Amino acid sequence: MSGEPRTVVRKFLARPQHEGAGAVVRRSIGRFELKYFDPFLVLDEFSVTAPAGFPDHPHRGFETVTYMLQGSVTHEDFEGHKGTIGVGDLQWMTAGRGIVHSEMPASHGTQKGLQLWINLSSRHKMIEPRYQEIESTNIAEANEDGVSVRVIAGESLGITSPIYTRTPTMFLDFTLEPGAQMQQPVPESWNAFVYVLEGEGVFGKSRSSLTTAHHLLLLSPGDRVMAWNKSSKPLRFILVGGEPIGQPVVQWGPFVMNTQEEIDQTIQDFENFENGFEKARYWRSEATQDNEF
Ligand code: FJE
Ligand code: FE
Predict the structure, then answer these.
(1) How many whole angstroms from 79 Cα to the centroid of ligand 2?
(2) Nearest to 48 by CA among 75, 80, 28, 29
(3) Which of 115, 251, 255 to mutate to test the pocket of ligand 1 (most atoms within 8 A of CB)?
């Protein structure tokens, strides 16, 4: 390969904070010091135990990707779409012009996962909402020399994910056995980051310092990423890359548009049940109804 390997340019520890109704998230992208890493708006490692959760709320202008690590979450939306995702399952939701939904724990104990918000370009912000769901057993995994990778989006070790990414994105879940090392091509012009889930690893250059769980690493430009597991335990991390959109971002909570006028319009649409929010008028999730009297 002709280009340079990517190196680590910034490192953040994602500390727990409260979000939703009694839920806890470790937010790395989307916090004050890192409002946006184009095209990524939010990366949350979430942890929810009933009755906590994320009751009925709207989205417009981006995609949410939910990838389960422990337990299960039930989602319901105002179109009648309802389902439960468990460990290793993926939901790739394009909110587009509007979704109202709930995301609540589906089993006992603590449910854990990752939720990534990916921005949409101005010409895609108002597209029809869409879901792509893949069960764990249908997520392809490649294994080579102590490296295993689950291909959530994009391509790795000759495997291509069936997920369609409106904003070109790669999302890979790597596990490196002790002593293993990996190298993964990432398109030169994309932004890319690593988020460590488990164990400790060396990223970028073989002599850089160790990174442990719950840390986000922003990577420099380059054409590939390298990582090493020099420890005696498995190392698990996600590598995510995306093509930058390069447009202004105006965010108001769950609405992400390009201008303040579009945000004002969105708030009006939501309050008046218009332009994609029609079905929000009479809809309440079953999860919410259960908690009313
Ligand atoms: C949201 C606060 C929120 N991270 N991770 C405000 F908490 C949310 C929200 C989530 C969320 C849901 C899951 Cl299942 C996992 C999450 C934030 O729902 F959308 C806004 N606006
Ligand atoms: Fe949501």
Answers:
(1) 14
(2) 75
(3) 115
Distance CA 21, CA 52 (A): 5
Q: Which two tokens stand for residue 225?
A: 């990423």
Residue nearest to ligand 1 atom 3, measured at CA? 20
For 227-250, write each residue's pLDDT tens digit: 999 999 999 999 999 999 999 999
Q: What's the pLDDT score for residue 104? A: 97
pTM over 0.85? The answer is yes
Ligand 1 centroid to Cα of residue 7, in Å, is: 30
Q: Return the CA Rg of the chain.
A: 19
CB 172 within 8 A of CB 200: no
Residues 225, 217: contact at Cβ < 8 Å?
no
- The mean pLDDT value of the chain amounts to 96
Distance CA 114, CA 47 (A): 9
Q: What is the pLDDT of residue 293?
A: 42
Amino acid at 108: H
Tokens of 130: 């869409």
